[in-house]
Amino acid sequence: MKIVVCIPTYNEAKNIKRLINQIFAHCNRHGFVDTWVLIIDDNSPDGTGDIVKQLQQEYSQLLLLERPKKMGLGSAYKAGFLKALSLKADIVCEMDADFSHDPSILPFFFRALQKYDSDLIIGSRRVKGGRVLNWGIHRKLISAGANLFAHFLLKLRTRDVTSGYRAIKADLLRKIHLKQLQTNGYAFQLELLYILEKKLKAETREIPITFVDRQFGKSKLGVKSIAEFLIELIRLRLFGSNVPLLK
Ligand SMILES: Nc1nc2c(ncn2[C@@H]2O[C@H](COP(=O)(O)OP(=O)(O)OP(=O)(O)O)[C@@H](O)[C@H]2O)c(=O)[nH]1
Ligand SMILES: [Mg+2]
Q: N or C: which end of the chain has fewer CB within 10 A?
C-alpha cells in the first residue's frame, strides 16, 4: 500500500526536519514502509526547501515540489495531489508542517482506513475526545464560526470541516478534476470536503485529535483567507460545486 503524505510549507525551517524524521520513524515502526513524504514548498525565504534537499540524501522516499512563490495552501495541495496520483498512490494525506498535527497518529489513520473500509479519515477537534491546546479566544471563535456556518448552510455531516489533517483513498481523488477546484487558500479544505462528501458520497470517519497551536514560525491565516472561506461557503450554498467528476 503506497502512501503519500503531502505537506505544504512556507517558512517552516524550524519544524520541517524534526517533522520528516518523526513521520518516517512512526510509519516504519507500524509497518507502513511504503510511505512517501511530499513537501510542496513555495520558495520559503527561510530556506525550508534547502533543509528538505539535505534530508533527501538520508531518505529516498522524501520528495520536494518547489514552486517559485507563495501561491496559497489550496494551490499547493492541488499540485501535491496531482503529483501523488501520478506516483500511483493508494492513500494521499494532508498535513500541516507546524506540529499542530501529531505525526505519531498517522499510522492509526491508515489502520482506520483499512479497518472501517472508509474513503476519508479526518483528524477532528470536534468529536468526543478531540481538543485544541493553546488557542486564544480569537482563533476559537473563527473556527467555531466557520464550522457553524458550514453546517447550517451546507448541511455537511463532518463536524470539523476546516481540519487539514486527512487521509484520503487515492481512487476517490482520481474521480475529481483537481485542476478545476476554485479555491487556492484555506477554503480549499471546505471545497474538497464538499465534493468528497456531497458529490462522491465518501464514507467519512472522524478520529479525535489533540490539535496543538504552533510553537515555531508564524501563522499564515489572515483576513484574506477568512474572506475566501466565507465567499466559498456562500458560492457552494448557492450554486453547489461545478467541478467535473472523472470516470
Ligand atoms: N506551500 C505553501 N504552504 C503554505 C502556504 N500557506 C500556508 N502553508 C502551509 O500550510 C500549513 C498550514 O498553515 P498555518 O500557517 O499553520 O495555518 P494554520 O494552521 O491555519 O494557522 P495556525 O494555527 O496559526 O498555525 C503549514 O504547513 C504552512 O507552512 C502557501 O501559500 N504555500
Ligand atoms: Mg498551523
A: C
**Residue 191: inside a domain, yes or no?**
yes
The side-by-side arrangement of strands in the sheet containing 3-9 is 62-66, 35-41, 3-9, 91-94, 166-169, 120-124, 204-208
Nearest CA to ligand 1 atom 24: 219
Q: Rounded to whole angstroms, how far apart are CA atoms 112 and 150? A: 25
Biggest alpha carbon–alpha carbon distance for the chain: 49
CATH number where 159 lies? 3.90.550.10
Cβ-contact 218, 139 below 8 angstroms: no
Handedness of CA 161, 165, 170, 176 (dihedral sign): positive
Please indicate whether residue 5, judged by its CB atom, sits closer than 6 Å to ligand 1: no
Per the structure, the complete domain to which residue 191 belongs is given by 3-239
Q: Are 56 and 83 in contact (CB under 8 A)?
A: no
Query: Tens-digit pLDDT profile for the chain (247 aa)?
Result: 999 999 999 999 999 999 999 999 999 999 999 999 999 999 999 999 999 999 999 999 999 999 999 999 999 999 999 999 999 999 999 999 999 999 999 999 999 999 998 999 999 999 999 999 989 899 999 999 999 999 999 999 999 999 999 999 999 999 999 999 999 999 999 999 999 999 999 999 999 999 999 989 888 888 999 999 999 999 999 999 999 999 7
Quick check: CB of 80 below 6 Å from ligand 1? no
Pocket flag, ligand 1, residue 219 (CB < 6 Å): yes
Q: How many domains does the chain have?
A: 1
